[in-house]
């Protein structure tokens, strides 16, 4: 007997009301296509995970234009329940996720199109995507864990590239990308330093990652936190910084990166000011640092990450901070906006809660 396919879906769209306290998303009902395009798949979503980017866009802080009243979020995991007549790779029953940049298949494309910005995101109970823009997720993961991979996971994976076994990395913050990077870095044999403004969060991390002991730095208590990083590395500096602050922290990140090291710029959480970058060019040249922008990753990157995680059956349950029901999307977005989480916040969809 064929499964009866849904004709409508529940979906949250942004209100684009950026006033404090106002609802940032609104639940609506939308029609699904009566017939799938030949190379498309219909995905029943089980879990959506939030990134700071989602809260930032919902509050009007994105530095790039976004589609008015678009659908938020770009991290989701679901099950394929139907395929178009011309699909050749993805099958019914596959555990999958769409890629974050739907134009970035190999890493060499010139175009880009980001979910939840240039096009609608994934905060819905059903999704339709072309199979070329969908990847299979590791089968050993729960739905909650699998939903962390498409954006946060691939961003962390891309940010850690080219750092060999035994190297050192400074990871800024305790958000989703940072905690995913922490997991990958420890599994890769890297010495990890984590920075945060919260002693409570840092203590929790030291307790959780005690063997070997995790090095931490509180950048609020120690404004010259780059000096702490240099002390930890015997004055040499780290091989890699995963930079999330932007112009407000970049100069200090340069000062604690070893000569010839790498800074992976993945975020812009701090206030952006050109005055903070007066020393940028001299430091960049003097320290011979490779400063690279990380914009999630390609479909190939996602496939590679999933293969690596499957090979060692890496679990991610320890970086899930909290779970909200789908209907509480507004509360979840505000929770992330307030920076209350250590790790990832997820939303249970289609009864996954």
From TrEMBL:
SUPFAM superfamilies: GroES-like, NAD(P)-binding Rossmann-fold domains. Gene3D superfamilies: Medium-chain alcohol dehydrogenases, catalytic domain, NAD(P)-binding Rossmann-like Domain. SMART domains: PKS_ER. GO terms for molecular function: oxidoreductase activity. It comes from the Eukaryota. InterPro entries: ADH-like_C, ADH-like_N, ER, GroES-like_sf, NAD(P)-bd_dom_sf, Zinc_ADH-like. Residues 21-347 form the Enoyl reductase (ER) domain. Pfam families: ADH_N (PF08240), ADH_zinc_N (PF00107). This is Enoyl reductase (ER) domain-containing protein.
């Amino acid at each position: 007997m064929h499964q009866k396919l849904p004709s409508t879906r529940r979906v949250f769209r942004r209100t684009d009301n950026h006033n404090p306290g106002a609802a940032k998303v609104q639940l609506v009902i939308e029609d699904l296509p009566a017939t799938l395009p030949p190379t498309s798949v219909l995905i029943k979503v089980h879990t959506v995970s939030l990134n700071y980017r989602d809260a930032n866009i919902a509050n009007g802080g994105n530095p790039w234009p976004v589609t008015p009243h678009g659908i938020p979020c770009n991290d989701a995991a679901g099950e394929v329940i139907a395929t178009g007549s011309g699909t050749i790779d993805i099958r019914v029953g596959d555990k999958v996720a769409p890629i974050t940049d739907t134009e970035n298949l190999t890493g060499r494309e010139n175009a880009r199109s980001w979910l939840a910005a240039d096009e609608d995101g994934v905060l819905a109970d059903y999704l339709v995507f072309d199979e070329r823009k969908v990847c299979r997720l590791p089968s050993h993961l729960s739905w909650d864990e699998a939903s962390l991979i498409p954006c946060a996971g691939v961003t962390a994976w891309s940010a850690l590239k080219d750092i060999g076994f035994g190297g050192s990395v400074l990871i800024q913050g305790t958000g989703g990308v940072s905690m995913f990077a922490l997991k990958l870095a420890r599994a890769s044999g890297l010495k990890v330093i984590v920075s945060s403004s919260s002693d409570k969060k840092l203590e929790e991390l030291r307790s959780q990652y005690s063997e070997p002991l995790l090095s931490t730095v509180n950048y609020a208590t120690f404004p010259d936190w780059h000096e702490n990083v240099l002390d930890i590395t015997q004055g040499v500096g780290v091989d890699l910084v995963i930079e999330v602050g932007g112009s407000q922290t970049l100069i200090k990140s340069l000062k604690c990166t070893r000569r010839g090291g790498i800074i992976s710029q993945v975020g812009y959480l701090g206030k952006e000011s050109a005055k903070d970058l007066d020393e940028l060019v001299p430091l960049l040249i003097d320290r011979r640092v490779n400063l690279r922008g990380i914009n999630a990753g390609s479909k190939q990157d996602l496939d590679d990450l999933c293969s690596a995680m499957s090979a060692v059956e890496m679990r991610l349950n320890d970086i899930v901070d909290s779970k909200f029901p789908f209907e509480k999307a507004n509360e979840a977005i505000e929770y992330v906006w307030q920076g209350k989480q250590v790790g990832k916040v997820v939303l249970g969809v289609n009864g996954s809660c």
